[in-house]
């Protein structure tokens, strides 16, 4: 799920739109296949509990070669400490209190969006390539 205002790539040219502006029938650009994939459904959830399920990582805090945008991520996501060597089996990760000190502001009524494409695909958002699953079995499952 993506938090409101997170940009999503919709065109090969790199055109990005905020996730909340996407509609059923819109296309996502899959950077791995080079194709566009139709959105079949979008689910959104707005709850006062959402900020408690997320933490923010400030702009530029993910380290070199990683997204330079501020991002909101699940409390369950393991965030490697910036500057640690890649390939370590057990990389040092930011713990929740440390991550909260790096906080970006999340609105009290944060809205999260789940996107369901016509087939499993990948999409670009904030410098990350994210796997997006179709609502029914497809060849990538």
UniProtKB/TrEMBL annotation:
<protein>
    <submittedName>
        <fullName>Uncharacterized protein</fullName>
    </submittedName>
</protein>
């Amino acid at each position: 799920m993506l938090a409101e205002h997170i940009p999503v790539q919709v065109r090969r040219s790199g055109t990005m739109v905020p996730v909340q502006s996407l509609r059923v029938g819109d296309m996502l650009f899959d950077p791995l296949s080079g194709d566009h994939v139709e959105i079949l459904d979008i689910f959104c959830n707005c709850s006062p509990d959402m900020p408690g399920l997320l933490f923010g990582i400030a702009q530029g805090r993910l380290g070199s070669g990683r997204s330079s945008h501020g991002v909101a991520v699940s409390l369950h996501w393991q965030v490697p400490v910036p500057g640690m060597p890649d390939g370590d089996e057990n990389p040092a990760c930011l713990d929740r209190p440390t991550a909260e000190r790096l906080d970006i502001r999340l609105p009290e009524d944060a809205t999260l969006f789940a996107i369901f494409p016509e087939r499993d695909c990948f999409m670009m958002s904030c410098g990350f390539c994210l796997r997006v699953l179709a609502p029914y079995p497809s060849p990538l499952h």
